[in-house]
Amino acid sequence: MFLPIIFVLSFLSSSSNAADFCVGDLYAPQGPAGYSCKKPEAVTVNDFVYSGLGATGNTSNLIKASVAPAFSAQFPGVNGLGISMARLDLAVGGVIPMHTHPGASEVIVVVQGTILAGFISSANKVYYKPLKEGEIMVFPRGLLHFQINAGKSQALAFVSFSSPSPGLQILDFALFGDDLPTDIIQETTFLDAAQIKKLKGVLGGTG
Amino acid sequence: MFLPIIFVLSFLSSSSNAADFCVGDLYAPQGPAGYSCKKPEAVTVNDFVYSGLGATGNTSNLIKASVAPAFSAQFPGVNGLGISMARLDLAVGGVIPMHTHPGASEVIVVVQGTILAGFISSANKVYYKPLKEGEIMVFPRGLLHFQINAGKSQALAFVSFSSPSPGLQILDFALFGDDLPTDIIQETTFLDAAQIKKLKGVLGGTG
Amino acid sequence: MFLPIIFVLSFLSSSSNAADFCVGDLYAPQGPAGYSCKKPEAVTVNDFVYSGLGATGNTSNLIKASVAPAFSAQFPGVNGLGISMARLDLAVGGVIPMHTHPGASEVIVVVQGTILAGFISSANKVYYKPLKEGEIMVFPRGLLHFQINAGKSQALAFVSFSSPSPGLQILDFALFGDDLPTDIIQETTFLDAAQIKKLKGVLGGTG
Amino acid sequence: MFLPIIFVLSFLSSSSNAADFCVGDLYAPQGPAGYSCKKPEAVTVNDFVYSGLGATGNTSNLIKASVAPAFSAQFPGVNGLGISMARLDLAVGGVIPMHTHPGASEVIVVVQGTILAGFISSANKVYYKPLKEGEIMVFPRGLLHFQINAGKSQALAFVSFSSPSPGLQILDFALFGDDLPTDIIQETTFLDAAQIKKLKGVLGGTG
Amino acid sequence: MFLPIIFVLSFLSSSSNAADFCVGDLYAPQGPAGYSCKKPEAVTVNDFVYSGLGATGNTSNLIKASVAPAFSAQFPGVNGLGISMARLDLAVGGVIPMHTHPGASEVIVVVQGTILAGFISSANKVYYKPLKEGEIMVFPRGLLHFQINAGKSQALAFVSFSSPSPGLQILDFALFGDDLPTDIIQETTFLDAAQIKKLKGVLGGTG
Amino acid sequence: MFLPIIFVLSFLSSSSNAADFCVGDLYAPQGPAGYSCKKPEAVTVNDFVYSGLGATGNTSNLIKASVAPAFSAQFPGVNGLGISMARLDLAVGGVIPMHTHPGASEVIVVVQGTILAGFISSANKVYYKPLKEGEIMVFPRGLLHFQINAGKSQALAFVSFSSPSPGLQILDFALFGDDLPTDIIQETTFLDAAQIKKLKGVLGGTG
Q1: How far is C16 from chain D (nearest CA, A)?
Q2: Do B189 and E98 touch (CB under 8 A)?
């Protein structure tokens, strides 16, 4: 006698499944709103959990820092859900260089150490402050910002974004890590040619 | 002599067809914004009309009520258009149990009978009232709400949603109609184990 | 001993109240997203219920029809919630003339009678069909559409919109009910001056 | 020694590529948010540049005007980016007839000549003015508007839209250029049958 | 000689300031999109930094847990930026009870301890898993979810939301912590009256 | 006898006025979605027309170029309408330096002369090309881009944005035109201190 309710309502529920989530299928067509959805029946809890931010990143590099993203490309469970994360590790002296996320605002929470974080507004006003453990700071979408280990020990922070694929444009790589000709860089940034060539050498740029 | 205007402008118009609508192709890839679009040349008026809400639903069940959805899964014409509908039939004593639509606000219009409708806000304030024929009520997105036949005759209502796929999470089915273990339900809802097991029995839940 | 949970969590809940709804305050500043919100503590269930669609409209007019809106201006409870409604009454021979809603898609549900409804796409293709009781039809946002009583009795329908303030541009009023000069209408519509003047006379237009 | 930074950060950057753009693949599935994305590695600068607006349009037609669109169907580089353009050429006496864009606001900039431009609001108020070279005017989304060459020489304007596929519904084509029956047009527009038939004859409509 | 560039460009920049951020003014009118903006000239770095998540919450309560929000009401710097955060502290045996956020998706990152986290989909499928330090999990918008300390020590997690004011509807408070009459709860949840009254007693509900 | 239709329908139309547009009132509260709306009855055609882009800008400055914006701060008619414009004048040798618009995509149309335009993607790929008269190019939202007069005569272009307040962050002003300390710039950009100080001198920066 109870079957009717189960029939009627579970029909309803199963048909509305796609409204809940759209785990990204990285091999199917991608559109402006993100990846195509994996078939709901193939989705498991593991699609919604990501372990890639669990380990300390390798900071044996020039910036003494590392960034591990959990964007939709790494963590397809966030596809279409308007949010994503990343992990920042900064060794002593470590720096996340000046960068923007073209499509998202960011909030940082400092979990370990002290981080000097800041951003620059369109009005060319600089907002920066050292953040202690447990403090959070928001970086409005699309603006240049940076994080520097301001303490004497390793620092750890998690950052969240208002988009599953926030993008990341690191200023130095954008300018000096590709084949944008030196004279164009010079004309559009007023930097000296020698400075440009020096950084192109370091960052692998040509032209 | 008139051909030029026809040529120039109809070229324009036909190329902008996709801006108008995107009738869902239920068998093509689905993305965060909805179903892929059926080819415009295959679309007919029947894609924009749905007859599935025309008949009184079967209310011979525990809740003495039925819900017939016209979401994008049933009515692909609303895909991408930010709106959908459903039909509610409530026999005498019928109830649409406590539920949410995770992704949409809802407006109900009572067409026949009297329906006691209400929702609960994040601030734990309850808003409920009996609605007469022709009265409408809005349920803000994502909040728990319910509808009860408050009269002595069959009731009929149509509900509209601010999304083509609003989703539907019925509280009892979510808690007791799946395999969520009793101890987890107990810990997260403070309900007694006996109560949980009783409802799992009724609603087909396991665990 | 139980007070702490109440304190901690109710603090949380009450502070997030604004996330739920924003009942429009028609006398405070209005912005691109809608009206300013009424203070949450002044909101009652009556803000979410609207009775203005309950009575049959007066159809003793040229179009033998009436439209009663429940947009945010009439029903401030829908402000910010992405949805609104209206009631259509069509006497025998009644017509809702050709019109658009600049900012919203629409779904119609026929509650009584038979209504011939249709819309015209950007590709100049016409989609129209007589709708019986219980049938629904969607009109994609911004396109010209119309409804005609196609039966031999009074017809009643409710329409829902994907916006709390969908707008309404009735073609004849737009062209002939204002002070747009006849020669501009003529040049931009190819209508004859005599036709324009005749309709300006009927609809109160000048110029 | 510098390789580590290159490895870590370029991994990050390449994986976030899809956040930047989604050049439309006109032959892959299309969804409510636009075309599927062309593979990033196949994208070149030519996908972001469009030359189709470079030449004066053919104005030897009834309206003595031409419209060249650069919507996502013609210029797939704008797919997903919330913007598109078109070019308007108006010979002496040329007119862009009364029309709407169902899904976008528009800004016009007059580059050559004088153009009388205007729109009609939902409140049936007309806003129109002659625009000189360098003047701009905005037409809010979905409203009827028009442009007329108001000078004694050829006029040129560029228009931009708040959508990559704004749609275009030209009033005369919508009413008289398809197979909408004369009696339906008559009932929904109050135009005389003779007027309707005359314009159907000119614009190729049937019915 | 260099002044002109400063004049022209700084004019531009200062005028576009509002595009960057809109720090909430909690005492000015609020609209559907959030709080009114604080005057840009009064904004300092402290508006973008929040220290309220820095201290361990008081878990001496029934749920042995605490939630500290950094929504726009507590942290006005996130107003309009599409993101917010909260801190979860769970003592041994602590539980964040079953709840929803009506308007946002959530990502949790476990910073200390082990947390059993899960959510229930519209299709009544349960997705849950114990999360270790550094693991993250996403909860799609509007769905019921919960977090339980699954370890033998204090647990700490930070959660981020895809909205500056995600809302929070805790199931038990919604059902039993207000004045929703027992018979309505009974009819809409199938819970026994005794169970309802017991929990109303604990949670302070009346009716 | 015709009055009834006028009464019923004009009531409808006037009440939905706010759906059409929201001309910005620069002196009323501003929210995340833009400026408060000017009272509809005070709005005239002049609110929708802007003449500030009509004159050639003063290019007697370091960059030999000028930018005149028509954002919502200058042209309140675009408030809430998802679009805005600007005029670029580039004398021979003129350059619009490397910059981003944090919240908008941009399309440029070259009206006079030849402009070398380009942008850099998150994947550090450079897309640039000389644009001739009538050619258009799109710059996806938030990415670094630039324009250079590549010809031997004055150049003129109009740019459109997918937002009424796109923001503008000019790289050199952001880095060197404020009080961001030299050592922070050095650490986050790898530029030499001498280079930084030189440009701070030119651009008026301190610190």
Answers
A1: 31
A2: yes
| Residue carrying the six token digits 């009929």 | B156
A151 CB contacts (<8 Å, ≥6 apart)?
A92, A113, A114, A115
Can you tell me whether residue F205 is helix, strand or coil? coil
Instruction: For residue F5, give the H/E element and its range.
Output: helix F3-15
- What does the pLDDT average to over E67-84? 98
Residues of chain D contacting residue C175, judged by C-beta atoms under 8 Å apart: 98, 120, 144
The structural domains of chain B, ordered by start, are: 60-167 (2.60.120.10), 173-203 (no CATH)
CA F173 to chain centre: 16
Q: Which two tokens stand for residue E15?
A: 């005028």
pLDDT over 50 at E175, yes or no: yes
Interface of A with B (CB under 8 A): 1-2, 4-6, 8-10, 12-13, 15-16, 18-20, 22, 25, 28-29, 31-37, 79-80
Across-strand partners of C116? C130, C148
Average pLDDT over residues A16-24: 78
Q: Tell me how far apart the alpha carbons of residues F60 and F48 are, in angstroms, rounded to a whole number.
A: 31
- Measured between beta carbons, the chain E residues lying within 8 angstroms of B100 are 100, 102, 142
- pLDDT for res F18: 55
Task: At C17, list the tokens.
Answer: 């109240």
**Residues C103, D184: C-beta atoms closer than 8 Å:** no
pLDDT band at A27 (very low <50, low <70, confident <90, very high): very high
Residues in chain D: 207
pLDDT band with cut points at 50, 70 and 90 for residue B18:
low
Chain C: list its partners (3+ Cβ pairs within 8 Å): B, D, E, F
Helix (H), strand (E), coil (C) string for E65-117? EEEEEECCCCCHHHCCCCCEEEEEEECCCCEEEEEECCCCCEEEEEEECCEEE
DSSP chain A: --HHHHHHHHHHHHHTGGGT---EEEEEEEETTEEEEPPGGG--GGGTEE-TTSS-----STTSEEEEEESTTT-GGGTTTT-EEEEEEE-TT-EEEEEE-TT--EEEEEEES-EEEEEE-TTS-EEEEEE-TT-EEEE-TT--EEEEE-SSS-EEEEEEESSSS---EEHHHHHHSS---HHHHHHHH---HHHHHHHHHHHT---
Which residues, in sequence order, are CB contacts of A112 under 8 Å at separation 6+?
Answer: A133, A153, A154, A155, A156, A157
Q: What tokens appear for D189 in the block?
A: 């527009």
Chain B residue numbers with beta carbons less than 8 Å from the beta carbon of A80 are 31-33
**Spatial CA neighbour of C178 closest among D118, D151, D185:** D118
Strands E34-37 and E24-31: antiparallel
* pLDDT reported for residue E1: 36
Q: Which residues of B touch C109 (CB under 8 A)?
A: 53, 85, 158
Instruction: Write down which chains contact chain F via at least 3 CB pairs under 8 A.
Output: A, C, D, E
The predicted model gives B53-59 an average pLDDT of 97
Residues of chain E found within 8 Å of residue F169, distances taken between Cβ atoms: 13
pLDDT, tens digit, for every residue of F51-77? 999 999 999 999 999 999 999 999 999
Three-class DSSP category at C25:
strand
Query: What does the DSSP 8-state code read for residue D200?
Result: H
The token duo for D127 is 């806003």
DSSP state of D76: G
Q: What is the token pair recorded at A94?
A: 């470590």
Single out the residue of E87, C75, D186 nearest to residue A136, CA to CA.
E87
Question: With touching defined as 3+ CB pairs under 8 A, do chains B and F touch?
Answer: no
Question: pLDDT band at D153, cuts 50/70/90?
Answer: very high
The conformation of residue F56, written as its DSSP 8-state character, comes to: P
Q: What whole-number distance in Å separates Cα of residue D71 and Cα of residue D106? A: 13
Asked if A137 lies within 8 A of E49 by C-beta distance, the reply is yes
Residue D118: what residue type?
G
